[in-house]
Amino acid sequence: MYAIAQLNLLFNYLKAKKKKDTSEKFDFSNKEEIPFVTIQLPVYNELYVMERLLKNIAKIDYPLEKLEIQVLDDSTDESIETTAEQVKLIQDKGIDIQHIKRSNRQGFKAGALKEGLKTAKGEFIAIFDADFLPKEDWLYQTVPYFKDPKIGVIQTRWGHINRDYSTLTKIQAFALDAHFTLEQVGRNSKGHFINFNGTAGLWRKKCIYDAGNWEGDTLTEDLDLSYRAQLKNWKFKYLVDVVTPAELPVVISAARSQQFRWNKGGAENFQKMMKRIIINKNLSFKTKIHSLLHLLNSSMFTCIFLVAILSIPMLYIKNEYAHLKVFFLVLSLFIISSFIFFVCYWNMFKSIYGGGFIKFIKYIGAFFTFFSIAMGFSLHNTIAVIEGHIGKKSEFIRTPKFNIGTLKDGWKSNKYLKKKPSIHVVLEGLLAIYFIFGMYSAFVVGNQGGDFGLFPFHFMLFIGFSYVFFKSIFSKA
Fold it and tell me: What's the pLDDT at 31?
């Protein structure tokens, strides 16, 4: 079902690419039409990237009398002092920037955004995480679309300033590119629900209040408010051609914490929103299906993990009980889903990097690397998803930022890194050995010289779990 939904999104995406955007926009040559904008920067212990962030935001091109910047600082370390110094330097340039600090982190990021909203002067609220570097004309590229009073959110596509840093950053970029092209465009072009991605987007303040304001009861407050807003009939505008560069996590412990938060938050939001979506009489059947599958996106890892674990016993059962072979032959049809993903992601890859034979060969390598390592994360992400579905609460763990762009840049001295790997890493190491046994089994099962149908699958699982295990133990980028 998930693969078929992705195929539907691909068709939507390809159709949308051919359409010209005729949206009504504010005329910024008329000063009366330029609205007041508040930029919110929710930060927490961002020592390494705050200076870069603030210098970049200070360059944003927009009439100063129509712009304010809120640094929503929940930090508990020395970055508070250095941030205050940077804010003072920007204030001296005549820019309206405020350094807002809370006495506690209640509600985490959602709480900080909600607190800032109380004093925000802007009709529209732009939000950037600490690792995002919007271009100078970003507000001119986005704000005009709010002329349509039904639009509550404008989201832009994420770029990656350190995409080629390592295998880890390349596979993260691959996954995010699929989401920000195929999925966001595919859903938005047909009026299905999409999500504000927590950063690099704008909210109409009225929309935030109408949807019930920010809530901190899930780990993905952005997905939560997005769905509540769209259930209130607010429209979202996705701008695939406006790219906002950001830094990808370069160490696997940072990527793990980010993946855990996103996957658990997705499951939490499924539990929170499922009934509201199903009973809503204003939504089409197709929008409901896409919405539920969207919220179950992270839950796919439980399917992957379950299939992986059962595949080795299945190999033996299939070859021991001849009368059951027909069932396994029918189940092999599900390899079609992998082919669907291959086709969908190729169209994403081609739209960003271009087509041609050489690019296709590169894509094949990228796809199988991504697929293997995604499977290697399946235990970690399955635990996150199960916690989300059963309602186990956990703290909002921020993703450490590094201010790294090249291999020459160091990261080992980063004070925010977790020093000890999770106990789950041991299980990932054992799973790598388990899939070595799976590959060995291909040679010995049955009476006809083995069964190699699952060998590529077990090889990819071995590669994925080995990668995650060794990178987690040795903490190398």
Answer: 93
Asked if residues 236 and 230 have their Cβ atoms less than 8 Å apart, the reply is: yes
For residue 477, the model assigns a pLDDT of 44
The CA-CA-CA angle for residues 223, 225, 230, to 5°, reads 95
DSSP per position, 77-94:
STHHHHHHHHHHHHHTTT
Distance CA 298, CA 315 (A): 27
> What does R_g of the chain's alpha carbons equal in angstroms?
23
Three-state secondary structure call for residue 319: helix
Residue 418 CA to residue 60 CA, distance in Å, equals: 34
Query: For 119-176, what is each residue's pLDDT tens digit?
Result: 999 999 999 999 999 999 999 999 999 999 999 999 999 999 999 999 999 999 999 9
The SS3 of residue 242 is strand
Q: Where in the chain are the domains?
A: 24-253, 299-402+414-474
What pTM was computed for the model?
0.93
Residue 324 and residue 306: Cα distance in Å, rounded? 20
Among all chains, which residue has been given the structure tokens 């691909």? 10
pLDDT in tens, 8-48: 999 999 999 999 999 999 999 999 999 999 999 999 999 98
Q: Which CATH code for domain 24-253? A: 3.90.550.10
Positions marked catalytic = 74, 222
275-283, Cβ contacts within 8 angstroms, sequence gap of 24 or more? 276/227, 276/231, 277/227, 277/231, 280/231, 282/233
